[in-house]
Design goal:
The protein is of the alpha/beta class and 386 residues long. It has helices spanning 4-11, 45-69, 80-87, 101-106, 109-116, 131-138, 153-156, 163-177, 180-193, 206-211, 244-247, 252-265, 276-303, 317-326, 329-340, 366-383; strands at residues 95-98, 121-122, 146-150, 232-234, 240-242, 307-312, 344-346. The chain contains 16 helices and 7 strands.
């Protein structure tokens, strides 16, 4: 009785375009019949290879030219593996920078190294909450160094489940679970990212480009605020530097980013599926728990001889009006300083620190970050009693 497989072979009729006529089934010394084999078509493979390579080079070159023409330049991607590389450089007595993008852009590692006698490790992240990193360092029994922690109030007390918290938690988790393959992939990617502009993974992927389509808000379908486009570079130490186009006063890029900050920092309306009073109560409880957790982490760190100083970095324009109205100093900042007993440096109360202009309202230019860091170092040393 013929098997189902043999029936299938008999019924299936494949096109003969790339197949030669099957030879007769032969037996060798009474052995089994030869199986049919697909022959390699007699086509000019070398010429096809050359044409494909030229097409790929032309397409890649065109995309690279397009990306550079709209303002992009080569820079490392601030991904979880790059952060993990920096986290692995933390030694027991390291100086570590944590927090949001203001500590990322506004602190110059060279000037801090001159002031502290050791090279700081940059662990701040754009649009992130500092607490998961603070907790990770506090739970590291080997660490008893110094932490410089930036505070942007709304980010610092971001509740669980929000984007700032999720991003930081995911990154910290990666530092404990990174595989050898992920580590090698990061090392291989860096030389390319430092030379090719279109490898900006957070902005030039198809998914991110589609998110830029001007889709208006609709009932029950609100478009989230847009994130700022490329305006800074990042090196292997995770030092961020504002590009010249953004740092130029009154530039189109700076003005565009200014208008992005306002909706991004404006608190969203409470959800409609829960009573407003209940929502505010739950948010208040989450913030109170954060204050408790921060104080506990700082206490654990200082019990081992570690030190921490909180810093409020410069900001300006319409963003300053919004932040000062929604999160004044007398609120979250004062509460953190009071609960932790740690020193704090609020730039606005030091004449030598408050005269800096943020071109796009939230970060210092590359040149100003050097001068700001130079002026900040004496205050840091005094606050840390060094």
């Amino acid at each position: 009785m013929p098997s189902s497989t043999s029936n299938f072979k008999r019924i299936l009729r494949l096109p003969r375009l790339f197949f030669s006529k099957p030879p007769e089934i032969e037996r060798v010394h009474g052995g089994p019949p030869f199986e049919y084999e697909r022959p390699i078509p007699q086509v000019p493979w070398r010429g096809i290879t050359v044409v494909v390579v030229l097409i790929v080079i032309a397409a890649v070159s065109a995309w690279e030219f397009c990306c550079r023409s709209i303002g992009y330049g080569p820079t490392l991607n601030d991904n979880e593996d790059l952060w993990t590389m920096a986290r692995q450089r933390v030694k027991p007595e390291s100086v570590v920078i944590i927090g949001d993008s203001r500590a990322w852009y506004d602190l110059d590692l060279d000037e801090l190294e001159k002031g502290f006698g050791k090279r700081p490790v940059q662990l701040a992240m754009g649009g992130s909450c500092a607490y998961p990193v603070l907790a990770d360092l506090a739970n590291d029994e080997n660490f008893h160094g110094t932490i410089i922690c930036s505070i942007v109030p709304r980010l610092f007390v971001a509740p669980p489940g929000t984007l700032p918290m999720e991003r930081t938690e995911k990154t910290v988790r990666r530092s404990h679970t990174e595989t050898p393959a992920q580590r090698v992939s990061q090392y291989l990617a860096m030389p390319l990212e430092e030379r090719v502009a279109f490898l900006k993974q957070e902005e030039l992927t198809l998914d991110d480009l589609l998110k830029r389509l001007p889709i208006p808000n609709r009932p029950h379908a609100q478009v989230p605020p847009r994130l700022p486009p490329y305006f800074g570079t990042l090196d292997r130490e995770r030092r961020a530097r504002m590009i010249e186009e953004c740092a130029r006063p009154g530039s189109e890029l700076a003005r565009m980013i200014q208008q992005i900050w306002i909706p991004l920092f404006t608190p969203p309306p409470p959800p409609t599926y829960i009573p407003k009073e209940e929502f505010e109560k739950k948010m208040g409880q989450a913030i109170e728990q954060r204050f408790h957790d921060i104080a506990k982490a700082v206490q654990k760190l200082r019990a081992r001889g570690g030190k921490i100083v909180f810093v409020r970095f410069p900001y300006g324009g319409g963003l300053k009006d919004l932040e000062d109205r929604e999160t004044p100093r007398a609120g979250i900042w004062d509460r953190v300083i009071k609960d932790t007993g740690a020193p704090g440096i609020y730039y606005e109360y030091y004449p030598e620190l408050k005269g800096f202009d943020c071109p796009e309202w939230s970060h210092l230019s590359a040149g100003d970050s050097v001068e700001f860091s130079k002026r900040l170092v004496p205050h840091l040393r005094k606050a840390l009693q060094l």
